Amino acid sequence: MTTQDQHDEVRIIDAGAAPVRFARGWHCLGLARDFRDGSPHEVEAFGTKLVVFAGEEDGVLHVLNAYCPHMGGNLAHGTVKGDTVACPFHDWRWKGATGRCAAIPYARRVPPRAKTRAWTARERNGQLYVWHDPQGARPDPALEIPEIEGCHGPDAGQWSDWSWQQIRVTGAHCREIVDNVVDMAHFYYVHYSFPTYFKNVFDGHVATQYMESAPRPDVAMDTLSGAGALRSDASYFGPSYMIDKLWSDVGDGVEMESVLINCHYPVAADSFVLMYGAIVKKLPGMTDEQAAYAAEQTSAGLAKGFEQDVEIWRNKTRIDNPLLTEEDGPVYQLRRWYEQFYVDATEVKDEMVRRFEFEVDTRHAGEAWRAEVSANLAAVAPQREQ
Fold this sequence. Notes:
- There is one protein chain.
- Helix content is 20%, strand content 32%.
- The protein is an alpha+beta fold.
- It has an eight-stranded antiparallel sheet with strand order 11-17-16-15-14-13-12-18. Strands 5-6-7-8 form a four-stranded antiparallel sheet, with no helix packed on it.
């Protein structure tokens, strides 16, 4: 093949196929407070349905398989009785802590094999997490979700409560959202912010994005990205839970500190539930109500950004062989990191977990984008004068 033939060769997209298994690791199911209303809650995840409920006696949130092993009734449609959830079909009562059947009111004895799956669950940061491992192994203590300063410790009272939202995304694998960790350029075109610094660090089970950005003055935005200069340290701890520490310029030399959560759990190979929320550190003199409002506004900005992402995901194709420039960031390296959660623990390779750093050179992009902003502002200037 000649050099010209190589240049004329059409790049064929390899769409590949989504993994048939679900990622190993901790997955957030939502805010703990939302499951503490005395009723069982249904969560569709990991190709099945789960039931989440708080025990009346122990106060602990429990997660069980939703379908009763007796005759298949849905426990999420049942009733919490003590520290058990009672099936609406025949009132078999299942212990949240162990998954064992504790009582069958109409029967003389409980069959010794009457047991359903009790998922390993954890409360932290005001949220509920569940551990998933296709091999059934217990969670590694080194993989615990870290505590967030605004939720624990002596300074917790200086932060707002969580403002939280969720959306179900269909027609896409959750790898799409993880790809954003390295995708510097999409922030300009999709979220209307102007990255001025962008670096990635992958190390073990943690993937981090360091970014500094400014708003685009040619785009009128009422979202967080349009507020002012931003500094963001965003880390995935495992396959599905990101903590983003954010500092934003709100004017007059005042900097607002926030913590954003971007997390998801898989429903099926081609769908997932995306959740996001924010807490805000109170500025001097800020009341609880003002802090709650600031968190709501921050969460609303997140919602706007994720709606933009979801629209892209729903209309794009899966692509396993993206054609990249050096400014696109380390997409393939990120995907190697991500693969560690989809293989058996014994199959995790050194290249998936060893430390890797990459800083995107934003100078050329910055020059091009500044020219584009100037042209856009010049085009609308006559209209503003009228």
